[in-house]
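Name: acyl-CoA hydrolase
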Amino acid sequence: MNAESVTEFLGGVPLLQRLPSSSLKKIAEVVKVKHFESGEYVIRRGESGDGVYFVWEGEAEVCGHAEEEISPEFLLKRYDYFGNGASTSEQQADVIASSKLTCLVLPSDHCALLRPKSIWNANERQETRAPIESILHLDPIEVNLFQGITLSDAPKFGKVFGGQFMGQALAAASKTVDCLKIVHHLQAYFLLVGDCDIPIIYQVHRLRDGKSFSSRRVDAIQKGTIVFTLLASFQKEEFGFEHQDAVMPLAPAPDTLLSLEELRERRIIDPRLPRTYRNKVAMAKIDPWPIEIRFCDPNASTNQTKSPAKLRYWFRAKGNLSDDQALHRCVVAYASDLLFIEVSSNPHRKKGLKISVLSLNHTMWFYRPVKADDWLLFVMESPSAHSGRGVVAGRMFNMKGELVVSLAQEGLLREARRPGTAIRAKY
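Structure predicted for acyl-CoA hydrolase:
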């Protein structure tokens, strides 16, 4: 067995899939191989053991003791694990090889690797994490179950931000697959408004695990009801044909553009804008964003000014992200919902009209590795709106001009209800 096959095998162990990829690689370096003949004791009850055992090949029986007789209780097969992470802990049962057995053993003095401080980084303290990394952190509850929360300083608009649902759900799915497989496609459905004040349970359904691809479905649950669902496909990286016909449009370099904070200050004193709008901007509470945005075409339009159904901006995560490609794609999924469906309302804005937009579904294709803490150009346009729905399509390019992501979203597009209008249904 070589290092790659060991890492791939460990990535199939449910206990280890929730770990940072860096932890998994370290475990692959320190595990020891042990062989046992059929009928040989692997661990005896009452012994301290050598660490945690992972079944590589063969089978073993866990045997209890009833009236001094050893009786098999259940069978351990490939990807199963047993043993204790503490050298002082005693084993509660006998484990006996029922065939020729090969195990990888994580020694007790390395078992701290099983208890990382974050699902993204084994050593990182919370105060040093990038803001978005904290937003996308999940607490593993059980195999296939994770819990996420909406942080007090996370962006929200009276409800859970749609990008948070996508980023956290994709994180949950990513933590149930081999770390060598990375998401290449996702399809999300926004079913109900999320409540910012209560935790979100993410339940992962393992639809398929193949040699090259894995598929997952994730349901986000609040108060016992599914409020969001995501389908995702993961692929092990491989060499193949490659081409790119899409050309990144010309755009000013991000370092030459105004930040959101600078743009806000400009708008407050811009005489072309209505005084009431400027006062509203000045008085508005500004929540810290985990994503830095630079608009390519800043203008004097407001939310009541008609404009083309197009938008371009550069974005990147604030701070330095952990070196985990799964995390970077979760961050891109989070950011992809920023101002996306709103573009479909641009041609319909006018003074006195309030428009309500709400995401319905969202699709993404990841083509190439992406680095979310470097600048990415997000180009979007809305080709159509009809029957109370708007559609937007987008592309993301890195600084080299490589197309890294394509995406599309459909959303509800309606005139906002006036005060006093009865609300009969969610949509």
